[in-house]
Amino acid sequence: MPMQPPADFASLSLAEVARLAAEAKLPPVDRWNPTHCGDSEMRIAADGSWFHQDSPITRAEMVRLFATILRREPDGSHVLVTPVEKLSIAVDDAPFVAVEAKLSGEGEQGRIAFRLNTEEVAVADADHPIRIKGTMDAPRPYLRVRGGMDALIARTVFYELAEQLVEGPEGRRGLWSEGAFFPFEPAAPAEPLLVGDLNGEAPMPEGGWRAAAVLIAVTDRADPGVLLTQRTDDLRTHAGQVAFPGGSVDPSDAGAIGAALREAGEEIALPPGTAEVVATLDRYHTVTGFEVTPVLATIPADLPLVPHPREVNAIFEVPLAFLLDRANHGRGSRWHEGRERHYYELIFGDRRIWGATAAMIVNLAQRLRWP
């Protein structure tokens, strides 16, 4: 947690810096909820300078005082708050700037402390991570300070840190602090998206691909899930398999989105108007000749859904985090018409999610760059 340090920051040991940060006392702004609200007519520029009515605030002690009552709201805006009033303040980039850094220790025993432009001290750790945004050519490094607020790490400070990089997990170069590793290099490029069955070589049928769509319905809850169905055992195709609600695009449908919503209404009795479509995702070609468009949407949690008695044996929800976690993306293979077919599969309890459904889940995780 930040605090106001003595002026001789450069002479402090890292242990002294850590102690000072731990002892920091700041007003309990997170517990203040005054009824009077307004506009402070103040702004924090990208370089950390403070302004009031477009005039710079030059008194450093005044800036330090205002910084102690600065709070980030849930919507990302910032306010100056006291027990009796809450005033909005414009922030061009980050509300703080890290203007000096001290490093000690080696490897996992390393520690990095920062001095902010408000003369506060912060130590990088798991709760106060260093994050690199932007690009390799134009990086924008940030340090999480307090209350969801960041400090932009000054360019000179960033370059000093970059000279001390070590190799960390997954071969990425970065720095350790308080047992946490902060990569300064981007992750390795994601694996290519999956384009279809038969290792991406499913042949186009005569007459072209048949259009189909599925609904990836994400439940709107604190820990969201995704609806899946277990097909009945007597279907002509995909009997007993796990699948998203979906099917062929009919001429009367409003494209893939209309088809996915109609099929969800038929298969699981999804009430009309309850799905909020987010996007259509990457198309996937199946060995049965379909070009499937996944439609990503959110739906209210705990809807009274009903499985279609002839098509759906069960409706169940799988945590979104489970589906996106690459550790759960197993690989399998089987022989199909004289050649080995490789596929993804996810095992959730006693249910096996594989084939095209698993491939579309893997593609979604790739698009989101899920860890």
List the helices and strands and how they pair.
Layout: H1 14-22, E1 36-44, E2 50-52, E3 55-56, H2 60-68, E4 70-72, E5 78-81, E6 85-91, E7 96-104, E8 111-116, E9 121-123, E10 130-134, E11 139-146, E12 149-153, H3 155-162, E13 166-167, E14 173-177, E15 180-183, H4 197-200, E16 210-220, E17 225-231, E18 242-243, E19 246-248, H5 255-268, E20 276-280, E21 284-285, E22 290-300, E23 312-319, H6 320-324, E24 330-336, E25 339-348, E26 351-354, H7 355-368
Parallel strand pairs: 1-6, 7-12, 16-22
Antiparallel strand pairs: 1-2, 2-3, 4-5, 5-6, 7-8, 8-9, 10-11, 11-12, 13-14, 14-15, 16-19, 17-18, 17-23, 20-22, 21-22, 24-25, 25-26
How would you characterize this protein structure?
A hairpin with a 5-residue loop joins strand 4 and strand 5 (78-81). The model is unreliable at 1-7 (pLDDT under 50). The protein is built from 7 helices and 26 strands. The protein has a 6-stranded mixed sheet. With 371 residues, the chain is of the alpha+beta class.
Would you kindly provide a brief summary of this structure?
The protein has 371 residues and is of the alpha+beta class.
